[in-house]
Amino acid sequence: MNTAIFNGKASMTSVEIAELVGSRPDSVKRTIETLAKKGIIQFPQTVEIENKQSLGPRRFSSAYVFEGERGKRDSIIVVAQLCPEFTARLVDRWRELEEQIRKPMSEIEMVAAMALEAVR
Fold first, then answer.
1. What is the pLDDT of residue 77?
2. How far apart are CA 78 and CA 117, in angstroms?
């Protein structure tokens, strides 16, 4: 999964949503854009993420990032649109993210997380 914390808040990218529902990231982005244009959700912030499987010029790609209560709501709507049977999986993932925010990491967990990020 992608980085779970963005600006100190639980967050989820459109790439992670694609992984959760088994869709292509570009399809998820189109769904987000369609829902936002209709005013159903807000346009989320765009971030650049690294594709760890590519060393070419397309190593970085843009993704939408959902954060906070509004992001949680909007991401649930996106998943419900894409794949209703996976809505429960998304709700469970948000619970995990919120639990990570509530429960501070131990020193060992922080070192392990930094080491994992350095390897990626």
1. 92
2. 28
